[in-house]
Ferredoxin reductase (Plantactinospora sonchi), 254 residues
Amino acid sequence: MARTAVPGRLSNRATWRVARLVDRRQETETAATLVLEVPDWPGHQPGQHVDLRLTADDGYQAARSYSISAPVDGDRVEVTVQRVPEGEVSPYLLDVFTVGDPVEVRGPIGGYFIWRVTDTAPVLLVGGGSGIAPLMAMVRARRAAGSRVPFRLVYSVRTERDIYFADELRRRVRDDQGLDVTYLYTREAPEGSPASPHRIGVADLNTHGWPPQLEPACYVCGPTGFVETVADILVGLGHEPRRVRTERFGPTGA
Ligand SMILES: Cc1cc2nc3c(=O)[nH]c(=O)nc-3n(C[C@H](O)[C@H](O)[C@H](O)COP(=O)(O)OP(=O)(O)OC[C@H]3O[C@@H](n4cnc5c(N)ncnc54)[C@H](O)[C@@H]3O)c2cc1C
């Protein structure tokens, strides 16, 4: 029994399962959430990701990593994909992949960039662009568990039109006690915005994050340059490096 239990759990993650697309939701002009039904899905923690693998008729295969953007829900796994212009996989997933189509899924992957609903430290989430995906899984898991852990989300986007999960985030801020969301705009700020467009900086994290004395758990996700800038700022502000967890959305395999 014991001999099979551990290898069984490990091989779970290494196994490619044939999933099907069962639903899709457009998030922005260039991003959509794909809802996959994955047979025998072993469950996941908010923050983990999966690998998706596509196989062409001639046998050519391409695999890419995508964060899971919703908490565990039986065999359903949601990922939210941003189009990378000229990319091989993301335009296919957004334009060609249709409900009923198969895709291979491997996961869940990642044991470090995880928030557990039993964690009690205040949480700072900092997302850039599609980096909101695993952070949204955490926001949703907090809600689903009825957690009262204070969450602050700082979300950097190009324009208001690029906000993923916009309606839901508005609802969550209204209904989920202890969740604050701040939007920062890099290209075009909506009218009445307190700040003009800018890249995230010290003042933003000082104002909208937590003081390091509260020992918050910080999760930073987005393009590599964004993540490195934010992590450096947080450490510079006095957050202990071990409390600053990062996930970089560079090209898969980089
Ligand atoms: C752990 C992890 C989790 C990820 N989660 C998500 C997610 O939740 N949502 C999501 O949309 N993406 C996510 N990504 C990125 C994703 O894996 C792919 O890299 C992305 O979809 C591009 O794949 P592609 O085949 O379309 O482009 P490719 O054909 O791989 O690349 C085309 C060109 O674009 C460049 N490029 C590739 N990826 C990026 C990128 N992310 N940013 C800027 N330039 C890039 C390449 O260098 C290349 O020049 C994640 C990556 C990692 C490592």
Q: What stands out?
A: Residues 1-10 have pLDDT under 50 and may be disordered.
